Write the structure tokens for this entry.
Amino acid sequence: MPEGDTVLQTARRLDAALAGQVLTVSDLRVPRFATADLTGRRVLGATARGKHLLTRFQDGITLHSHLRMEGSWRVYDPGERWRGGPDHQIRAVLATAEHTAVGYRLPVLELLRTEDEEQVVGHLGPDLLGPDWDPDTALRNLLADPGRRVGDALLDQRNLAGIGNVYMCELCFMARATPWLPVGELPMPIATRLVSTAKQLLEANRDRPMRTTTGATAAMSRIRTRERLFVYGRAGRPCLRCRTPIRKADRDDRPTYWCPHCQAGPTG
């Protein structure tokens, strides 16, 4: 599932391509809204709320989409070949005289009144990259169920919005706790630091084309760019801190990575 920084970057691309323009093509390829026509409406802008995308149009209409695991929005210039996937995977086409935005494999796509947006995003906790960010509320939410596993608590968007599987694994490594440790067993300074580190990581990566948690960037050597993350996607490779091989487990259809030496707690 895309992380909050990825969704924010997608919102920025949509906003840059469509905001202020009038739609010349509107094609929503989902049964419920297949007959809806936004053609002729001006696009007011696109914004992210956690992992949700809200594209707003004049007359108080919002197109709500969510990328989940495989969805994406691509922006094309006039005449440019669409490369996001086969036509049967297209769920939305929004075109202006200058650009065309195409949504692929979108599991959530719906129209609603802009005034009703809270119905789809009101349940979210403080947005790590949003104006509503509140670390104290996020910490209280995270610790509200002491018996819950750290990894599950971090992924629950009702606690704090924007963390996906990549950041979950990386944050647990940086906190030196396995994702299966009950969150109530985290010392308060560690739990507090977990929230502040989550904010720092997403802020640091919101403008980067390639995510990093270790400080390695694409400007460094090819070897170093393979070490942009501490544990995620590095099963069998040596831990960057202790050289112990990173382990991987599949849980709830998500791969979980951790270092058995650096991280304390249950392992599944």
